[in-house]
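Supplementary notes (optional reading)

For those who missed the lab, this is the record we used. Protein: Elongation factor P. Length: 185 residues.
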Amino acid sequence: MISVNDFRTGLTIIVDGQLYRVLDFQHVKPGKGAAFVRSKLRNLRNGSVNEKTFRAGEKVEKAQIDNRKMQYLYAQGDEHVFMDLESYEQTELASSAIEYELKFLKENMEVHIQSYQGEMLGVELPNTVQLEVTETEPGIKGDTASGGTKPATLETGLIVQVPFFVNQGDVLIINTEEGSYVSRA
């Protein structure tokens, strides 16, 4: 058990039998009445984000999440196959469980798979990934002065806004949290 006063971003807790990750929290001490903690929690099973208020000092159960380093192998229908790098054991995850992460996953990429008591929860991506541009309009000489952007389709199907100087075939560094262009690799 852990006190809500000890909340920190990224902490995984169990509330009402559901598994949540703390996205944001705020300690509130009103002039009148008892202090409380306002929090924003993501349900790890269905991905929904909920706001919940706890009384100061209230106890919640801390969940122990296991992170295993795995390699993404391939897609097989609606399932995606990952291999444990230590035991070479293969695990399948449904597309619905990793819908957002699929935009950044490519074959042979190493990621961390999160699980709770044997139940696979999802994929933890690195902060940035390198992806190749498969389709974009060619840059026109002189366009860089305005600092504008154009859409580019990457090898995973993700579409991001990139500067005019980026061309088809370039490898880009993409921020996985925001799904945005960082720089050329």
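If you only remember one thing from this example: DSSP finds no helices and 16 strands in the chain.
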